[in-house]
Design a protein that fits this description.
This protein has about 150 residues and is an all-alpha fold. The protein has one domain. Helix 1 packs antiparallel against helix 2. The longest helix has about 30 residues. The chain is elongated and about 65 Å long. The chain starts with 6 loop residues before the first helix and ends with a helix.
Length: about 150
């Protein structure tokens, strides 16, 4: 691993935090979409509803994956992409209360993005992003030195 240190120690320290954020993102999307099917899209024909569900799932997962891949690559601004993902899940879920959805699913659909934002703001996730930024900067300096 660039900058000394071992990959095993890095993964042992930061991988659980990273995966927690990814899983909270996946669960946030699934709770949001299950509520959207029973609230916003309930009057649509089943075929059209499944088309919307597939398209929404594709967009949400692509956004989550892109944000996390950019975080792994050391792009510090990418955390805003993932935070925006969680905020979008939350902003779309909150108005569903007027449709009187299942309260347990609604509670989880509110709680999961909030937990995702909390994990992004956690000390260990911040440390991981800082370390990944340092690795990216070291990688760039090595590439620049090779070109000379």
């Amino acid at each position: 691993m660039i900058g000394g240190g071992s990959m095993r120690a890095f993964l042992a320290r930061y991988f659980p935090t990273f995966m927690l954020t990814v899983l909270l993102g996946c669960f946030s999307a699934s709770a949001l979409l299950s509520l959207a099917v029973t609230t916003y899209w309930r009057d649509l024909p089943a075929a059209q509803r499944s088309d919307y569900l597939g398209l929404a799932l594709l967009v949400l997962i692509a956004l989550l994956v892109a944000g996390n891949l950019l975080i792994i690559r050391g792009r510090s601004w990418a955390v805003w992409l993932v935070a925006g993902y969680f905020l979008a899940c939350l902003a779309i879920t909150v108005p569903m209360l007027q449709y009187r959805p299942h309260q347990g699913v609604y509670l989880f659909a509110i709680l999961l993005p909030l937990l995702g934002l909390l994990s992004l703001n956690g000390k260990r996730h911040r440390q991981m992003r800082e370390k990944l930024l340092q690795i990216r900067l070291q990688r760039q300096s090595i590439r620049a030195a090779k070109r000379r």
